[in-house]
Amino acid sequence: MIEELLPSGAVAEDTFTDATDDPASVLFPEEAARIARAVPRRQREYATVRVCARKALGRLGYAPVPLLSSKRGAPRWPDGVVGSMTHCQGYRAAVVARADDLASIGIDAEPNGPLPDGVLDTVALDAEKEWIAALSAAHPAVHWDRLLFSAKESVFKTWYPLTGLELDFDEAELSVDPVAGTFTARLLVPGPVVGGRRLGGFAGRWTVGNGLVVTAIALPLGPAPDEERDEAAYAHSPSGA
């Protein structure tokens, strides 16, 4: 499912079922130690998404290695690799690419259902709430509040490996194209420097199916053609002063 959102340089593996009922059988000892006290559901999803990741790495020519996480939960990939993992009820996925092909990757999957009460006010800006309301009326089969949440998770997963910094939900403003299946994130704080230029935002893609909302960003090494205009707009906006 995730592969339809990605360019040719990215390698994806996903599954709708867990790899095993015995997570320890597919984990390296140091991985198993990290989740030894977790509930069985958490152990299974942790193990299965790493099975996906090692399969994807194998397709790039990398031998299986432990895939531990930073303090913020970001996977630590082998040298020369960028990637992202996601898991939710009924779905696990991992995407990797060579660092010579992509600068960063962020993916996220969520159930295609409404956000819990009160969460939208935490994650959405006023402008985002407006398009969520409009799209919910026009296209009710998609839970646009959940899509916003997923897209912001993909933004963070793309941002964090480049900066090592937190990014709050209100520090990126998203817009969505409901026909093209794309989204853009305008950063409201100075963006990371990639290819010698500071980025003003990220562009991603989304899809809905199998009861899921899935989002992905595959950040190229060079800036998109319109990023100079984005940067100029940021520099002249009140938030960019």
From TrEMBL:
Mg(2+) binds at D108, A109, E110. Its cofactor is Mg(2+). Residues 30-97 form the 4'-phosphopantetheinyl transferase N-terminal domain. Keywords: Magnesium, Metal-binding, Transferase. One of its GO terms (biological process) is enterobactin biosynthetic process. One of its GO terms (molecular function) is magnesium ion binding. GO terms for cellular component: enterobactin synthetase complex; plasma membrane. CoA binds at R42, R50, T86, H87, D108, E153, K157, L167. SUPFAM superfamilies: 4'-phosphopantetheinyl transferase. Residues 104-179 form the 4'-phosphopantetheinyl transferase domain. This is 4'-phosphopantetheinyl transferase. It comes from Streptomyces caatingaensis.
